[in-house]
Each structure stands twice: as structure tokens, then as C-alpha cells.
Amino acid sequence: MNSKRVRPKSVALSLRGFELAPEQVESIVGLPVSEAGTKGERAKPGVKTLLKRSFVRFAIEFPDTCRIDEMIPALLAKLGGVSHLCEVRDRVLPEFFEIDLTLPVKNSEDQEGGFLPPSTLADLSRLRASLSFQFI
Length: 136
Fold this sequence. Notes:
The protein is built from 4 helices and 5 strands, in the order βαββααβαβ. By secondary structure, it is an alpha+beta fold. It has one domain (about 10-135). Strands 2-3-1-4-5 form a 5-stranded mixed beta sheet, covered by helices on one side. β4, α4 (about 120-125) and β5 form a beta-alpha-beta unit. The longest helix has 11 residues, at about 70-80.
């Protein structure tokens, strides 16, 4: 296996473009954020670019042996389940409600395939969440 991996395998829920303070969204979800930013603040320290939207991101990492079909259900369970997240979405009213899969496969000897079962697709549909993939 290649030891030059920059980021581990992970899945995250991101909410972007809402009027509440990120701390309020964190409180509504009931778990600490992995990352957050407020509209109008600097995107990163020392950078002049300002954020156009407030955002929060809740991420969890997985070992390389974890299958893709296990990742989204684990995230949804950790964040309180689909019903709770629908309530969060309806209270926060984000412009974007996204599930992001980060899969370090480009330089890996273990290139993998994968699938998402119908139950996971149904959960994503119920959440009205988009799904993105980062292959790194």
C-alpha cells in the first residue's frame, strides 16, 4: 500500500448557505462540528478571500478496510438518524445539504469498487441530500 496518502477514507455531512451561526447549527445537530465557517469571515487565516456562505461539516474517518456501503449509514447513525437530520435540515434551511465521500484510491494498490444499497439511496432521497465523491 502507498504510504503517501494525504487524507484518510472519510464521509461527511456538509450544510452550506444558512442564516444561523455555525454554533447554533452545531447545537441543533447535537454534536461538535469537524469544520465551520461564517459568511463574511476569512476562508483561512492569512487569506484575503472571504466566505460567501456559512458552513458546517460533520466528518468521520474510516480504516482502509471499510467498505463504501458502510460509510454513509455510519455517518447517519452518528448524527442521530435520518429523522433527526430531516428536522435539522428543516430548522437550518441550508442552500446545500451534502454527503461527501472521500476515497483515497488514486495512488493505492487497493483500487476498490463499491455500491450503495437501496436503503442508503432511500435515506439520501428522504434527506434531499446531494452525494459527492472525492477520489484522492
